[in-house]
Design brief:
heterodimer, A: 358 residues, mainly alpha, Cytochrome Bc1 Complex, Chain D, domain 2, two-stranded antiparallel sheet, 38% helix, B: 248 residues, alpha+beta, five-stranded mixed β-sheet, globular
Chain lengths: 358, 248
C-alpha cells in the first residue's frame, strides 16, 4: 500500500508539474474544504459562535459524519437518510420510518437550509443552536438510536476519523462535543440563495420571472411575507397557522408545539415558520407532513383554517379566518414558489456524500 | 557642596540597599499562601449511605428503590469570616453520581479563615444553553436534554410500589428557573492560615426531596421532566436535602 502510495504521489506530482499548478492549489480546490460565500441578498457573513469557528477541516469532518450510517445503532441510518440533498435535505415522507426502530416518527423531517441564521431548531425551537441539534436524531430511539459512548468507540477505532479530528480540532481525543461541533460546521455551510428568484432580486443574468410568477410574488408580499419574511422566507418565530383546534397531551404534550418547550398556554399549537426555499422539492408540508401538495397547502390557508385561542392574528382579519385566494391566485402563488428552487444547492458537490468518492 | 552631594548620594544608596534585599525576599515570602480543600459529597437515605436497588420507605409511605441518582454541584465559593476573602472555584461544574464521582478538590484556595460556603445545584444560564462542552458537562454523561437544549440538573430514576400503583420513578429536574444557589455556614470555621489542606463534607438526604413543603406521593407524582412537578422537587431542596456536615 505504502509503495503504491509513493508511486502514486510521484505520478501525481509529475502530472501536476506538467499541467503547471502546484499541489497546494489542488488542496485548496477540494470541494469539501471551502467556507462558502454568502449571497448578498441573504446576509453579509455566516454567523459563527466564537467557540466553534468554521474551518475547512471541520466542515469536511462534519460532512463525513453527516453521511456515515456507522454513527447509528444498527449501522444503517445516517443524517442523510432523512435529509437528502436532492430533496433540499428533506426526505419526501410525511413521517419517516427510516430510523433504527422502523417506527414512524411523530414529526416531519425538515429541510436543512440557511440554518446558520436560525436561533431555534426543530419545529418547536427546542434545540437552541446548531451545536445542540444533532444530539436529538443521534440518540432518539426511533431515529439513529445511538448511545454516545458507543458512538465514540466507533469513531476512535475508525481508520479515518482519528486523523480527521486531529486535523479539525488539533487533538487526538475524540469527544462528543467535538462530534457536535463538526456536524454543526457542515450544517452551517448549507446555504441556498441561488434560485431564479435570487437572480431576479440581484438583477443577475438568468433572473427573469414570468408575468404569472410576478403576479404570484405580489400576492406573496401581500399575504404571506409577514411570517415567511425576508429572503430567508421565515421570520424564525412560532405561529399557530390553524391546522388543529385540539391539542392532545399524549407523547409528552408533543402536539403543543412551541408550548411544549416554553410551558406557556399562549404557545400551544405554535410551530416554527419554515423557510420556503426549495419548497417545490420538500413536499409533503407542515410539521407532520399532512399536506402532500402546494395546492393543498393553499387550500388550507384559503378555507381550512381552524380556530383556536392561539391562532395567528394574521390569519383572522376583517372578522373572518384564513386568506381568501381564488384558484387563479393560488396558481400564481404556486408559480412564484417554484422560482425558489435552487438547482445549484441540490447539485453542489461540496454537500454530497464524501464516502462515495472513496 | 560637592562633598555633601556625594555623601547624600551614598547615603541614598546605603539606605535603599535593605529595600532592594527585602524586595527580593518579600517576593518569595509574599507569594500568597494557598491551600487545597477536598470536598466530599455523601449521598444518604434516612442517614445511611444510599444503595442501589435497596428498598426504602418514602415520607409518604411508599416503597421505592434507586437505580440512578446524580446531580450537578456548581459555582462553589468559600467566604472568609471577615468577608474580605472570597474564593471562587474556576470552571466549577461537578457531576456528583451515586456510583462515580463523589468529590473534588478546590485548588489554590487563599489562606484565610472561612466560615461560609456557597454553591448551586444545577447549571447556570450562561452554560445551560449549549451542550458542546467538556469534562463534567460533556453530553456523554447522560445529563443532557436532546428535545429542549439544556442539562438535567438533578436526575433520580428507580422503581416504586405505592398504595395503588407500581411503576418507574423518573425525576429529571432542569430548566433555568430551577437553578438554585445555596449559601451555608460551615459547622466550624475552616482555618487555612496554618495548614495547607482542608476538608469539607456535604451530605444529601434523599428522603428530604419528597417531604416539605410538598409531600410527594408516588401514586400521584412519579415523573418529572421539568415543568411543575420538577418545581415541587426544587422547592423541597431547601428543607434539609443538602447540607454542610463538616469542615476542618
Amino acid at each position: 500500500m505504502k509503495k503504491y502510495g509513493r508511486l502514486l504521489s510521484v505520478f501525481l506530482i509529475t502530472a501536476l508539474a506538467l499541467v503547471g499548478c502546484d499541489l497546494r492549489d489542488v488542496e485548496e480546490a477540494e470541494p469539501d474544504s471551502r467556507i462558502p460565500e454568502v449571497p448578498p441578498n441573504l446576509a453579509e457573513a455566516i454567523p459563527v459562535p466564537n467557540h466553534n469557528p468554521l474551518t475547512p477541516e471541520g466542515i469536511a469532518l462534519g460532512r463525513m459524519l453527516f453521511y456515515d450510517p456507522g454513527l447509528s445503532a444498527n449501522g444503517q441510518v445516517s443524517c442523510a437518510s432523512c435529509h437528502q440533498q436532492d430533496k433540499a435535505f428533506s426526505d419526501g415522507q410525511a413521517l419517516s420510518k427510516a430510523g433504527v426502530s422502523g417506527k414512524p416518527l411523530l414529526r416531519h423531517a425538515p429541510t436543512l437550509v440557511n440554518l446558520a441564521w436560525m436561533d431555534g431548531m426543530f419545529w418547536d425551537g427546542g434545540a437552541k443552536n446548531l451545536e445542540a441539534v444533532s444530539m436529538g436524531p443521534l440518540t432518539h430511539a426511533d431515529e439513529m438510536g445511538q448511545n454516545l459512548n458507543s458512538l465514540l468507540l466507533y469513531l476512535r477505532q475508525h481508520r479515518h476519523y482519528p486523523a480527521q479530528f486531529e486535523k479539525a480540532f488539533d487533538t487526538d481525543s475524540i469527544t462528543s462535543p467535538l462530534v457536535l461541533r463538526a456536524l454543526a460546521q457542515f450544517q452551517r455551510t448549507l446555504i441556498s440563495a441561488n434560485s431564479r428568484y435570487d437572480r431576479y432580486v440581484r438583477k443577475e443574468p438568468g433572473g427573469k420571472l414570468s408575468s404569472l410568477e410576478l403576479q404570484g410574488m405580489a400576492l406573496f408580499r401581500r399575504h404571506c411575507d409577514s411570517c415567511h419574511a425576508t429572503d430567508f422566507f421565515t421570520d424564525n418565530r412560532y405561529h399557530n397557522n390553524g391546522l388543529d383546534s385540539d391539542f392532545p397531551e399524549d407523547h409528552e404534550q408533543l402536539a403543543y408545539g412551541r408550548g411544549r418547550i416554553t410551558g406557556i398556554a399562549q404557545d400551544i399549537g405554535r410551530y416554527k415558520t419554515p423557510s420556503l426555499r426549495n419548497i417545490a422539492l420538500t413536499a409533503p408540508y407542515m410539521h407532520d407532513g399532512r399536506f402532500g401538495t402546494l395546492q393543498e397547502v393553499l387550500q388550507h390557508y384559503s378555507s381550512g383554517i381552524k380556530s383556536y385561542a392561539t391562532l395567528a392574528p394574521q390569519l383572522q382579519q376583517n372578522g373572518s379566518t384564513g386568506i381568501a385566494l381564488s384558484l387563479q391566485e393560488q396558481q400564481q402563488l404556486i408559480a412564484f414558489l417554484h422560482t425558489l428552487t435552487d438547482s445549484t444547492f441540490i447539485s453542489n458537490n461540496a454537500y454530497g456524500n464524501p464516502w462515495e468518492l472513496q | 557642596m560637592l562633598i555633601r552631594f556625594r555623601s547624600a548620594f551614598l547615603l541614598l544608596i546605603v539606605l535603599s540597599l535593605p529595600f532592594a534585599f527585602s524586595a527580593c525576599s518579600d517576593d518569595k515570602e509574599k507569594e500568597p499562601a494557598t491551600a487545597t480543600v477536598q470536598v466530599n459529597v455523601q449521598s444518604l437515605v434516612d442517614g445511611q449511605n444510599l444503595q442501589r436497588d435497596y428498598p426504602y420507605q418514602s415520607p409518604a409511605g411508599d416503597t421505592y428503590t434507586v437505580q440512578k441518582f446524580r446531580f450537578y454541584l456548581s459555582n462553589v465559593k468559600l467566604i472568609s469570616e471577615d468577608g474580605h476573602t472570597v474564593y471562587t472555584e474556576p470552571d466549577s461544574y461537578h457531576l456528583i453520581t451515586m456510583d462515580g464521582k463523589s468529590g473534588f478538590k478546590l485548588e489554590n484556595v487563599p489562606a484565610a479563615r472561612y466560615n461560609k460556603m456557597e454553591f448551586a445545584i444545577g447549571v447556570d444560564e450562561a452554560r445551560n444553553h449549549t451542550i458542546d462542552q467538556f469534562g463534567d458537562l460533556d453530553p456523554s454523561n447522560d445529563m443532557v436534554w436532546d428535545w429542549n437544549t439544556g442539562y438535567k440538573f438533578l436526575l433520580l430514576e428507580g422503581l416504586f410500589t405505592g398504595d395503588t400503583k407500581v411503576g418507574g420513578l423518573v425525576f429529571h429536574v432542569g430548566e433555568d428557573s430551577n437553578f438554585m444557589l445555596f449559601n451555608m455556614d460551615l459547622p466550624q470555621a475552616l482555618d487555612l492560615r496554618q495548614k495547607p489542606d482542608g476538608n469539607i463534607v456535604l451530605q444529601t438526604e434523599l428522603s428530604d426531596l419528597f417531604r416539605t413543603p410538598h409531600l410527594i406521593d408516588f401514586d400521584e407524582l412519579n415523573t418529572a421532566m421539568g415543568g411543575e412537578n420538577a418545581r415541587k422537587i426544587v422547592e423541597n431542596y431547601e428543607n434539609g436535602f443538602i447540607k454542610v456536615a463538616s469542615g476542618n
